[in-house]
Amino acid sequence: MNRIKELRNELGxxxxxxxxxxxxxxxxxxKYESEAHYPPKEVWIKLSQIFGVSIDYLMGISDVRNSTExxxxxxxxxxEDYLRKVGNRISMVIYxxxxxxxxxxxxxxxxxxxxxxxxGKIWPPKDFVExxxxxxxxxxxxxxxxxxxxxxxxxxxxRYPFTIPSNVLKRIVSMMDECEPDLAYWQNYLSVSPVExxxxxxxxxxxxxxxxKKMCDRLNVSADYLLxxxxxxxxxxxxxxxxxxxxxxxxxxxxxxxYRLRESxxxxxxxxxxxxxx
Length: 278
Prior knowledge:
Blueprint: H1 4-10, H2 15-22, H3 26-34, H4 41-51, H5 55-59, H6 79-95, H7 100-106, H8 111-118, H9 126-136, H10 140-143, E1 162-163, H11 166-179, H12 183-190, H13 194-203, E2 205-206, H14 209-219, H15 223-226, H16 240-243, H17 246-252, H18 255-277
Antiparallel strand pairs: 1-2
Helix pairs in contact: 2-3, 4-6
């Protein structure tokens, strides 16, 4: 026996409400619940997304309920698997409050694009993730399956020291691909996990200043060039942490994170001075 009725009752939805969300008639949904009719594939997918469970669990053939488990950024997963989990998480959050047509309007996107994001076929744009977080009152790291707690906040600060602006990020990704197209190489060179590398390439999240230093070293450019401060390549800055002024930091991280980064820089400097003293 499938679990459609059971899960609908858990969410406190009436048959007509759920029928509207998945785009079927009230009578058809009733037949799906009683198993008088078998739902088509697209209905199973929509129901799975709304309820936040695996299709196997929904069909009653598995006791594994949750298909949106959280990934730690150290997990070794593929981009396809990660996007699928993010899509499931986003769809679960969105469709618990809105039908697709309403969600597309509120989130300033199209139903077609929304379907692709929820199916894990494309990366959700950063501004889209932020709009979902604000509208649905959850954290962005929850939507990106980095955090399992549905916190009422919207920030990336808990894990990422700073974020590179999108216009600069395109240049960095292009330079990385030109230098070395193998993502496994960059994962090893920067000492980051597959998920952390993906979040760097698509959202500009850098988990530690040391990653930025390594990128400057490998690409043989200055931090100013890498971060879009100048238009021509210059000699690389091996000690970029000592050369970032407050205006420069604003480009990278903004006011809210500057103090924490300054503290990290000061600690790195003290550690180096101690090593040199020995």
